[in-house]
Structure formats: C-alpha cells, structure tokens
C-alpha cells in the first residue's frame, strides 16, 4: 500500500493534514468516503414547486440586478430570470459583488428554495457555467476543500487503482447483486450518476455488514464446534423434583427456555445465551432452576445484577426459594455488594473460595480481584447490557469458558439481536405466567389528578398498593430529589388517613432503600413514591397501579418496562401516564405506549426514534463499527448480509475455498482477539 508521502503530487502540508485525520495511505484516502452528496442536477420548473426541497434550477436572466444594503453586513440582490418559460424573481444575499455579471440573456444556475406565493426563488448558490458534473461529494475534512479532494481522488484512483483489492467472492457478488469493489470505490468518490453512486453505497454497506456478521457468526460457530466448555452432569432427578415442588406449573415458554439452557449446561460447549422476557415473564425462576442444576453437580453459581436494589430483591427471592424448598439446607445463598460489612464480606469470600456457598447474588462487587470461586459453573447476568464491556468480560473471566446466561427484560429489536447478539443463542419467553392481563394504560393530563387519586383509593380498598414514579427533570440529582420530595408531600396529603406513603430515591443509603422496599414489600406502606431507581426488576406482587409523572420525560421502552412492575399478579393492573407536554413527538410516544402492551413492537418503534446508541449506549450499539452502514436504516442489507454469512459458514466455503480466505482471516483474527481478552 502506497504511503501518501510517496505520492509525488501531494504536498507535505496535504500529507500531514490527511495524517491528522488518520489517513496515511492511498487506500486510506480512497476508503474515506464522502459524508454526503450534493446533487445539483437541474430540475424542471414543475419540480421546483416541491417547496420543502432545496433544488437546482437553470434559467436565463431577464433583468439587471438591484442591490439593497439591509445592514452593514447584509445585502440583498434581486433580479428576474426565465425558468422553463416562467419568469420568477430571484433573491440572493451577500453576493453584491456579482452584480455586474448579471445581465439580460445570461445563463444562470441557482440552488435554493422557491416561495410559490411570492413567486420568488431564494438562492443560496449561484453559478454562470454549465456543469461537467452536477453531483458534488462532500468530504468535510478540515483544512482542505471538497473540490481539491475530489481532484486528488480522481488522480489517485487513476494511478493506484490496482491497490484496491476485491475481497468478496464472485459468487457472492452475483448472488447479492453487488458491483465490483473498484467500480464502487470510483462511483462513491467520483460520482457521476447518483444511481451508480447508490449502487456503490450498497456494495460498501453490504461488505461492512457482511464482515461484521461473519465475525459474530463465526464466533457462534467456533463456540458450538469447539468442545472446550465445561460439561456439567447435573442431577436430572433432583432438578425435576425441584420443578415439581414449585408452587406453580412452568409455562410452555419457560419450559422451552429451560430445555435450551440445561442443554447448554450439559454440553461440551460454552453457553452464551440470552434469555429475553418481559418483566414478570418468569425469567428469575428459570435462572434459579439453572443455578440449582449446576449446584447438584457440585458447582457454584453466580448471578450478577446492575443495581443494589435489584441484588437485594434477587437475594430475597432466592433465599426464600431455596430456603423453603430445602429448609435452608443443601443450597446456601449469599449476597455480595459494596455495602456488605468488611466482616461479612470476609466470610462470604471464604465461603466462595472453599465452596461452602453455592449461589452468590451480587453487584459489580462480584468482579473484584479478591473474589475467587471454588468451582464456578454458571454465571447469570441480569440486564447485562447495562454493564460495561470490561465488567462483562471480567465476570465471565472468573472461569474461562464458564457457561454464561444473560437475561434481559428489554425486548431487543430484531436488527440488534442479529448484529449485536449474533454470537449468542437466544431464548424468548413471550407468554406471561398465570392469568396475567395486559396493563390498562391511560394517558392523562395533570388536570385529571383527582380521577387518578379516586382510582387509587378504589384499589387501596381492594387491598392493593401503588407506585408514583417521578422523573429525571433536571441535570442535577438534587433537584430531582426535591421534586420527588414535593410529590411525596402531596401524595401524603391526598391519602391522609387512608394509606401510608414511602419515598425512595437514588441518594438514600442502601440500608434506607432496603428498609423502604421491605416496608412496601410487607405492605406496611401502601404507596411508594420513587425516582426512576426502581426501574429495574423490583417485584411487589400486590402493587397494581403505577402513576408515572411527567411521563414525557421517559423513552418508550423505559415506560413499558416500568409499567411491567405492576403486572405481577392475576389482578388487573393499571398505569397512568401523566403529562402536559405539547411536544408532538412526546404525545405520539405516550399514545403508542397507551395503545399496546407488545414490548417487541414498542422496542422497534423506540429504535427508529432514538437509534441504537441511545438505547444500548454508544459503545454497545454497534453503529460506530461501520463507516457507512447503519443497522437501523440498512436493516434490509443487514438481513441479506447475515444470510450470506451463514451460507458461507454452513456451506464450508469460508473454510475451504481460497477465494474466501481474506474473509476467513478477518473472522479468525477477531475470534482469537476475543479469546485472548477472556483468558
Ligand atoms: P422476571 O424475572 O421475568 O421479571 P419473575 O421470575 O420474577 O419474572 O416472575 C414474576 C412472578 O411470577 C414471580 O412472582 C414468580 O414467582 C411468578 N411466576 C413465575 N413463573 C410462574 C408460573 N409459571 N406460573 C405462575 N407464576 C409464576
Ligand atoms: Mg456447557
């Protein structure tokens, strides 16, 4: 690959400028694509009437230009032009220096917008020559203008075309209708016809997505075909007995997920499975059974959660569960968080190391260096996308090739499941247990407060409980808490003598939070005012109503997830979305959440509105991996690329065919790098 510094017609200044942008070779430069294209293709006058669009028109000047000084730095120039037989007035600002160029009969090309009422075209650009090429690629590199870059690229393409290497096999190009790489590089850098440029863009996006899908699908393949995981022979009878003693029957989806998981556990490959199911769908029970299964084989299990509140909740569920089942014998459960006292911590660490603790529930504390296990067999992470990449790797790193079950209550849109989770297996629990009904959701204005209070009084009379969720309004946590405090006071007044009210927010100490949660859990308080800290996985079966204040402050998925908190028993649940927002997009969001309980549908909508970065965090969203492709916008190309990657692996072409070698090397290198990270 030729270094830019070796190109004779590039100045030292240009070379260093490119270098600053991480462009070092001719190939780097040819693969630095325009960020967009300006299309100055001249449109017919009829199309000018699409008033929303910036268009380019050409005409013949019909008058001299007049110039007005509006302010010291603002001039307005007007003249008339004939465009396809229509005489229109043209206005352009701050081009008074072109006045002498404008005279009757002169060809003029104008880019701008038309105002049909005033029959006036406000131009942002004016030119007097006819085009060679109406499409201008915009590269947006600081310090060098687009025209110069285009000129350089034309030359470089001519001189160094041979350095551009085709990496896609002919079979694939034919099957998926992709133009050769050289043509793509040419048509994207030096565009002539937008249609050809679109084909080039598709080719380049496809290649990016294909390489990504190959990486993840190859990881999947290697994991499934390398018998280097831990094979755990759990005690089938004991596990079945455990299931039989549950106070309920597992749902079809729970059974299916459990079969998948137990299959992974007893196989020689490492499990990497995502268990997806909405809040209340019964994932925790499934995880508990899986953890119990490894315990029956003499292994330990760990479940890691993102917040202390949730770890406390899970700990309670697990201790109850195993405590009742086994009279506190046989399965020993511990809780490890940063607020455990040093003395307790020491005992827990010892228990984990000597194997006397079977299952540990914990937060990030679990990944600290001082935590070591006697014989770890299964790691469960709850809401794992909330952990940083490093944290996830460290937990799994506690035992190389340890089975890993990831749980998520956030329905993951299809495109993200394919691209981000392509190396995982996925199990989905769709049906809710028992006779769960959909949450009746009402979007109301603040003026309906009295109705909401009446409704809650009715629920209280039936012995139920309710949440009031206060949003993040300010950047400052202190102000949010102030807001929560105010609401707390108002709720107390509204329900005076009827119900006890508690308050929970992020600034409380862990013991305080736990005390409030416990009081709510035990129905000592009936109404809980909470900042969105309770967002994750709190389980109070008796709470049937949730009031979300200033609901417009939350995203679609967040709202849906929060209301899942009240869908925990067979009693009818209600959610009020209170908002006075007049912002159209907010109203649309709230109406959508009001209209459906289908988490997957909501997740897809959310993805379209907010983009993957907002939902999953920039780092994990995947889009920064691509120069051109966007997994949301290009979901159809992603699908094709995914199919193509699977075909290459299934047909063994990837491993056996010389023409696929470059792609194979990319996938293999990625696999080795990931493996090292875990080891
Ligand atoms: P998740 O972890 O998916 O949010 P949980 O496992 O906490 O859901 O289950 C929610 C509630 O439903 C719990 O109280 C649990 O005991 C109960 N539950 C789970 N599975 C069933 C089932 N098959 N039938 C009835 N109730 C169930
Ligand atoms: Mg296994």
How would you describe the overall organization of this protein?
Helices cover 42% and strands 18% of the residues. It contains 24 helices and 21 strands. Strand 6 and strand 7 form a beta hairpin. The mean pLDDT is 88. Residues 248-251, 254, 277, 279-285, 409, 433-434, 537, 539, 541, 568 line the site of adenosine-5'-diphosphate (ADP). Magnesium ion binds next to helix 9.
Query: Proportion of β residues?
Result: 15-25%
Question: Uncertain regions: pLDDT < 50 for 5+ in a row?
Answer: none
CATH class of the domain at 236-429: Alpha Beta
Total count of strands:
21
Structural class: alpha/beta
Name the CATH homologous superfamily of the domain at 236-429.
Answer: P-loop containing nucleotide triphosphate hydrolases
The coarse silhouette is globular
* Total count of helical runs of at least 4 residues: 24
Output mean pLDDT: 88
Helix percentage range: 40-55%
Architecture of the domain at 236-429, according to CATH? 3-Layer(aba) Sandwich
Describe the structure concisely.
This protein has 679 residues and is α/β, with parallel strands linked by helices.
Layout of helices and strands:
Blueprint: H1 12-20, H2 26-30, E1 36-39, H3 45-48, E2 55-61, E3 66-71, E4 74-83, E5 86-93, E6 107-115, E7 120-127, E8 135-138, H4 146-160, H5 170-175, H6 181-189, H7 194-225, H8 236-244, H9 252-265, E9 272-277, H10 283-296, E10 300-304, H11 308-326, E11 333-336, H12 342-354, E12 359-362, E13 376-382, H13 389-397, E14 403-408, H14 414-419, E15 425-429, E16 440-444, H15 449-461, E17 465-470, H16 477-494, E18 501-504, H17 510-521, E19 527-531, E20 543-548, H18 556-563, E21 574-578, H19 584-595, H20 599-616, H21 618-621, H22 635-650, H23 653-656, H24 661-678
Helix pairs in contact: 6-7, 7-22, 7-24, 8-10, 9-10, 18-20
The structure holds adenosine-5'-diphosphate and magnesium ion.
Adenosine-5'-diphosphate (ADP) binds next to helix 10.
């Amino acid at each position: 690959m030729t270094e830019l510094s070796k190109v004779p017609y590039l100045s030292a200044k240009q070379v260093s400028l490119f270098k600053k942008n991480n462009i070092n070779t001719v190939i780097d430069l040819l693969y630095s694509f325009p960020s967009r294209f300006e299309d100055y293709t001249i449109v017919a006058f009829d199309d000018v009437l699409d008033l929303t669009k910036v268009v380019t028109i050409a005409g013949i000047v019909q008058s001299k230009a007049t110039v007005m000084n509006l302010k010291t730095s603002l001039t307005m120039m007007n003249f008339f032009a004939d465009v396809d037989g229509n005489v229109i007035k043209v206005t352009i600002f701050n081009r008074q220096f072109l006045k002498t160029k404008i005279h009757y009969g002169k060809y003029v090309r104008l880019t701008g917008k038309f105002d049909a009422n005033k029959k006036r075209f406000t131009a942002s650009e004016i030119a007097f020559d006819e085009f060679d090429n109406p499409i201008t690629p915009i590269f947006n590199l600081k310090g060098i203008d687009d025209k110069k870059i285009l000129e350089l690229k034309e030359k470089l393409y001519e001189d160094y075309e041979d350095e551009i290497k085709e990496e896609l096999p002919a079979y694939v190009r034919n099957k998926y209708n992709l133009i050769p790489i050289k043509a793509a590089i040419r048509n994207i850098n030096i565009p002539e016809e937008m249609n050809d440029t679109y084909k080039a863009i598709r080719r380049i996006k496809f290649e990016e997505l294909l390489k990504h899908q190959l990486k993840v699908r190859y990881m999947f393949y290697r994991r499934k075909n390398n018998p280097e995981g831990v094979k755990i022979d759990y005690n089938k009878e004991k596990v079945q007995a455990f299931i039989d003693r549950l106070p309920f029957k597992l749902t079809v989806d729970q059974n299916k997920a459990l079969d998948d998981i137990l299959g992974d556990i007893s196989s020689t490959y490492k499990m990497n499975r995502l268990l997806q199911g909405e809040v209340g769908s019964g994932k925790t029970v499934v995880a508990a059974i899986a953890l119990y299964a490894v315990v029956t084989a003499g292994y330990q299990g760990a479940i890691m959660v993102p917040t202390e509140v949730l770890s406390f909740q899970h700990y309670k569920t697990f201790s109850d569960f195993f405590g009742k089942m086994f009279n506190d014998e046989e399965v020993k459960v511990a809780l490890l968080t940063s607020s455990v006292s040093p003395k307790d911590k020491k005992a827990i660490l010892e228990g984990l190391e000597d194997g006397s603790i079977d299952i540990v529930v914990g937060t990030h504390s679990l990944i600290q260096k001082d935590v070591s296990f006697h014989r770890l067999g299964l790691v469960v992470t709850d809401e794992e996308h909330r952990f940083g990449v490093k944290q996830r790797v460290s937990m799994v790193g506690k035992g190389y090739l340890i089975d890993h079950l990831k749980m998520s209550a956030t329905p993951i849109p299809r495109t993200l499941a394919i691209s981000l989770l392509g190396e995982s297996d996925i199990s989905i629990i769709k049906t809710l247990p028992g006779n769960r009904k959909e949450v009746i959701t009402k979007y109301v204005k603040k003026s309906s407060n009295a109705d909401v209070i009446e409704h809650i009084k009715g629920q209280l009379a039936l012995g139920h409980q309710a949440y009031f969720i206060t949003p993040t309004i300010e950047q400052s946590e202190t102000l949010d808490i102030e807001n929560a405090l105010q609401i707390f006071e108002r709720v107390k007044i509204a329900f005076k003598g009827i119900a006890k009210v508690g308050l929970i927010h992020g600034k409380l100490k862990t013991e305080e939070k736990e005390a409030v949660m416990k009081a709510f859990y035990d129905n000592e308080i009936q109404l809980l005012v909470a900042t969105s800290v309770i967002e994750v996985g709190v389980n109070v079966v008796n709470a049937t109503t949730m009031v979300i204040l200033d609901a417009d402050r939350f995203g679609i998925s967040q709202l849906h997830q929060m209301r899942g908190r009240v869908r925990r028993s067979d009693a009818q649940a209600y959610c009020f979305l209170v908002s006075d927002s007049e912002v159209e997009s907010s109203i649309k969001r709230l109406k959508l959440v009001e209209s459906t309980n289908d988490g997957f549908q909501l997740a897809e909508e959310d993805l379209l509105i907010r983009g993957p970065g907002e939902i999953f965090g920039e780092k994990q969203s995947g889009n920064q991996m691509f120069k051109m492709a966007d997994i949301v916008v290009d979901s159809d190309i992603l699908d094709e690329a995914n199919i193509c990657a699977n075909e290459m692996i299934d047909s063994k072409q990837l491993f056996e065919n010389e023409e696929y070698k470059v792609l194979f090397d990319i996938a293999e290198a990625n696999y080795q790098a990931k493996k090292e990270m875990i080891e």
